[in-house]
Give the backbone structure.
Amino acid sequence: MNFFEHQDKARTNTRKLVLLFTLAVLAIIAAINLLVLGLIAYGDTQMAAEQPDILSPQFLLGHLDLILVISLLTGGLIGIASLFRSMRLRSGGSVVARQLGGTPVEPDTRDPLKRRLRNVVEEIAIASGVPVPDIYVLEEEMGINAFAAGYSTSDAAIAVTRGTLENLNRDELQGVVAHEFAHILNGDMRLNIRLIGILFGILALAVVGRMLMHSGRFSRNRNAGGIVFVGLAIMLIGYIGVFFGRWIKAAVSRQREYLADASAVQFTRQPDGIGGALKKIAVAQHGDKLEADTEEVGHMLFSSSLSNLLATPPPIMKRIEAVDPRFRPEDLQKAREDMEARRQAKQAEAEAEQEDQGEDDRQRPRGLGGRMLEPDNLIEKIGQPGLGQILAAVLLAESIPKPLERAAHSGEWAREVICALLISDDEAVRRKQLGLVAEHLGEECERQVRTLLKAGRELSDQQRIPLMEMAFPAVRNRPRPEVDKLLELVDALIAADGKVSAFEYALGRLMKKQIEDARHPERARPGGKRKLENCIAQVNDLMRILAHHGHEDSDQAVAAMTAGMKELGLAPSETHALRENWHERLDAALDKLDGLRMRDKGRLTRALVAVIRHAGETVTAEAELMRAVCALLHVPLPLLAEESSGSESRSGADRE
């Protein structure tokens, strides 16, 4: 199943779960109506003597007004509570992480364990072609657990417990993070956020029942006993709804967890990573639960402490067997010994890491060639990158000049990194651009940009977009007025020389789209309902713009464009190159094409691959433009790196 099929399935699951929860709510409304009607029928001595049938049409019609009022009040309570909770989650995944006690991991953290976590998350994000998510640590949670939350890749947050950092080695941590990225890329997060809102509405009913019981117990009213009874009944009905809610979530989520575990193995090509983490959870006494209340978010967790019947993730032992068929129960002893050794040497190990690692702990990969991934395999890598992409991301991150990498991770320098990437080599244009930096951000920022320009003389074209992605989290979390001012400056820097390059278009549009999606995550939908056949003109513009950026020869560009249109079963209507207004035409095309159905986005992406594969190699401008196009279509394009195989492609000198 590829990325586009996963997204379609996620949308189907969303509709299915909404339907099931709607049925659960209707069942709750029916139960409360029966409770009230029963109290009326059997609470009245005279009526009780007649032994009324409360389900008879005559009885129901006689109390129709009451039934409607009860139904509206119950449904309204659940609906308003769900809406209230959903509105509070509109800001994205960071809200969930903070509510569970998460502490943000700063981009320039000096804590060795947190820096290792940030490096792992950053490497997988770059390999996957998505923005680096916000990263949180649940400092008070000593068990091993993690979750990903958010509506889209631009507002995603990954959180791990302190126990995860302290008990897992780098490979195991990478396996857990890769598992959470699978949820991000497979479209599970949006479904999870919606489930939180819906479940809160059902929980609210149980809360109302508890409140009624409490008020009845301390009331001097002679009907206090009845109030307590009604409160108890409503609370029980509410918890019956919660029970079935858990059951529904578990039935769907278990398959998603198996899939995410399998994706983690594909990411890293080492079952011992995710498998080792699962084994340590299996032997930890409190390693598979959070101390915080997780009723609402249990379906999001890497592991659950509930019984096998109600646990949202599948049983740990079965998950271990799925990723490691050779697993034997006695293998858990090794995991137990490793955890004990890490606990005993935790302080000494942290100090050794601080001294040994210096600036970084990134894997030092070897055996990875510099060739591009064969385009035929690219579609299968979308949303499911492999070891080759991760190692390529490590190589890119490792080779970026250290002053620039440190600046990208600094809240005080990240904006300047973005500006420095756009400064021209032409002296006249450069002076104009630096003047714009001083005008928009101040003279101190201009001096910082000049400093970065000196440090970035060895920066290659392939490193520019990854460096921007590194800087994005620090930029995204600055005050909104500052971000707006930076976006205005980016536009001005791009327009300074009167033309737009493929890189400038990619950086400018990626920044705007990621900021927009982060601010309004609920609007960032991976696909719509539009059909490809209704967007022929926009497809034609997209194909010829991409083709002419990847081929200097006009005839070759036309041939590449024709190959792409042929993949769709279409003939090009215009083939000449767009010159002056190509970026405006591309904006208009992508704005409409973003509303395509997921299956049609898959077809379109295959056609784009046919364009870039036509010449047998991919030039930088073409790759940068392709990256921007896919991001604006909400299709995460992985690094175009060769997939490596065999042990020689494993990291050479892993250091924690």
